Amino acid sequence: MFRFIVRRLLQLIPTLFGLSLLLFIWLRRLPGGPETAILGERGTPEMRAAIRRNLGLDEPILIQYGRFVRRLIKLDLGTSTSTKRPVVTEFFERFPGTVELTVMAMIIAIGIGIPLGYLAARRRGRLFDHLSVGGSLIGICIPVFFLAYVLKALFSENLGWFPSSGRQDPTLGATRITNFFVLDGLMTREWDAAADALWHLVLPGLALASIPLAIIVRITRASVLEVLNEDFVRTAEAKGLTESTVRRRHVLRNAMLPVVTSIGLLTGGLLSGAVLTETVFAFSGIGAFVAEAISQRDYPVLMGFILIIAVVYVLVNLLVDLSYSVIDPRVRVR
Amino acid sequence: MALLEVDDLSVTFARRGQRTVHAVDGVSFSVDAGEVVGLVGESGCGKSVTSLAIMGLLPRQPGLRVGGRAVFDGTDLLQLDDRSRRDIRGRDVAMIFQDPLSSLNPVIPIGLQVTEVLTRHRGMKGEAAQKEAADLLDRVGIPDPRRRLKEYPHQLSGGMRQRALIAMAVACQPRLLIADEPTTALDVTIQAQILELLKELVRDSGTALVMITHDLGVVAGMCDTINVLYAGRVVETARRRPLFREPRHPYTVGLLGSVPRLDAGRGERLNPIPGSVRDVLAWPDGCAFAPRCTRRIDECVGAPPELTLTYDGRSYRCVNPPPVPGTPPPAATDAGAPEPATGGPVPAPREEEKP
């Protein structure tokens, strides 16, 4: 198992190497070159030449690439052209927020989706089944930002149950260590800070969970229906096992394989694209920041973002593979 | 009294907008304690559905109706609630299925699949259950049982898997064992071993066995009493020797005739039953086998043939049965009836009865 993890992590290296090449080419091929990206349309030829010299763009291409890779290895992603701060610093402040939000959304989606899908399959063709399948269709159809506004208007502005924006109440003066606010609160034993951060996650988490929830309900339902027809479930019934044993040990465990795969893919998607939800709840995660970077042509930020998402996808896939091998001995890794 | 008395069992599947399917249509048979009873017939004749109905294992679906009675040791299994049925299943009545690979849960070890029966019905846990499971695997002829307990179904061979399934079925020393085509998915040498194992287990423990099969060789080697099913009904019931010696239903004659024989002359053709199991007459309209029968007469169509009981306790459902060798055929029924398809003498069973 350990060797498998190490091997998969080593596989990250060629992936990232290929990605760096793509990014390098992308930066060189920008319309008007990087200097235009920095200067915009207004620069004079003299200014462009100065910037090219500053960036080392007048040197041979291989040397440029070498320098580019060396900076990547040192985690130097350059400076954001819009905020004038190092890209790494910006990400360190914002990415943990998105991760927390994604984890929250997936906990909601999995926690509700799997039981709902299972029950729908058991009550196939009855009212409960129709309601959850129909409900999941609505969940897929409703635009996330719209749902976010509705949740915000209802639960925070009208009922006042949840905060309407931000990641934490700034007046708490919570200590920052990892920038995962919930984790920080737990580590420093500032329980109120952790609870407050968690509370801030509920509404955006719900909004973000809607689509994964709907997908998980459907996949679980389909998968359980398939497993219920399997011969080994009949064998389990023939042994006279109680219904709950048959359900837990024989049905659910086998039905989880396709669900785990989709959870992996959905998590990766959420991490890279929670833009609208973060905007609605003024949640300082990575989504809104990157959306801004796109409109500002902030290339260093975009480049860093692409790299981070690539790493995240590989890690999430690793997790999926590991849970696969825990569930199914036939694909167990050695 | 018989251990299991199945009486007028019927299973129908009704689908909206489609004709109701009578998968099992008034099947009656009985199994005495320690007896080996065969249910024989082509695929689709309702033999598996019969066994699943007795076990209460038919997939729950709208339109499914089970009628009749299946009295096991004084209780009608069909009237039991889900809870009491689960108590009986695996403990008093156990079942072995056709395809050992798909009948085992692929993601949990063999050991747990054996011990869960012991835990459920015999309250065994921990090391005691492990030890008993190992003993069971040993009893069904799985070498190195301790190691096998930790393995998963995909790591076992086909024969081993079926042995493991048998171990699970006999774990609580059931009084009745239903084996639904237990050897169909296995290759021939393994088939013989598994049959031998079943015979041994049944003999040693006094368990009654219902053997469901399409293979007359299996029937010949094992069963005391044989029920031949066609289109959801029992068309002939007899002890083994009389059935093989002088089958009274043309379908049984056809089944026996279609068994390939080693002592047949070179180049001699096999004798299949003409037509297919799809050419079935609805029972209320007459004998379901009539469209394929070579002994068909006018009386076959119109009303279902009544069950004829004979002096030696056998019964059959035919208005124009083949003549018993040695007795002159009654002239009235033979007139106008074509010659039986098999023509020659009935083949001997593949395996001879042991005294």
Layout of helices and strands:
The complex is a heterodimer of chains A (334) and B (355).
Chain A (H helix, E strand, L loop, with lengths): L1 H27 L4 H7 L5 H11 L5 H13 L13 H36 L4 H15 L2 H15 L22 H7 L3 H38 L2 H8 L4 H30 L2 H6 L5 H10 L3 H29 L7
Helix pairs in contact in A: 1-4, 1-14, 2-3, 5-6, 5-9, 5-11, 6-9, 7-9, 8-9, 9-11, 10-11, 11-14
Chain B lengths: L3 E10 L7 E11 L4 E5 L6 H9 L8 E9 L2 E2 L5 H7 L4 E4 L13 H13 L3 H14 L5 H6 L7 H13 L5 E5 L7 H18 L2 E6 L2 H7 L2 E6 L2 E7 H6 L4 H8 L50 E2 L5 E2 L14 H4 L21
Parallel strand pairs in B: 3-8, 3-9, 6-7, 7-8
Antiparallel strand pairs in B: 1-2, 1-4, 4-5, 9-10, 10-12, 11-12
Helix pairs in contact in B: 3-4, 3-6, 4-6, 6-7
Pfam families (chain B): ABC_tran, oligo_HPY
Protein name (chain B): Peptide/nickel transport system ATP-binding protein
Family (chain B): Belongs to the ABC transporter superfamily.
How would you describe this protein?
The complex is a heterodimer of chains A (334) and B (355). Chain A is mainly α and 334 residues long. Chain A has a single domain, classed as Orthogonal Bundle (MetI-like fold). In chain A, 75% of the residues lie in helices and 0% in strands. Chain A has 14 helices and no strands. In chain A, helix 2 crosses helix 3. Chain A is globular, with a radius of gyration of 24 Å. The mean pLDDT of chain A is 81. Chain B has two domains: 4-228, P-loop containing nucleotide triphosphate hydrolases (Rossmann fold), CATH 3.40.50; 254-261 and 271-334, no CATH class. In chain B, the strands form two sheets. Chain B has an eight-stranded mixed β-sheet, sandwiched between helices. In chain B, strands 2-1-4-5 form a four-stranded antiparallel β-sheet, covered by helices on one side. Chain B has helices spanning 47-55, 82-88, 110-122, 126-139, 145-150, 158-170, 188-205, 216-222, 240-245, 250-257, 331-334; strands spanning 4-13, 21-31, 36-40, 64-72, 75-76, 93-96, 176-180, 208-213, 225-230, 233-239, 308-309, 315-316. Chain B is built from eleven helices and twelve strands. By secondary structure, chain B is of the alpha/beta class. The longest helix of chain B has 18 residues, at 188-205.
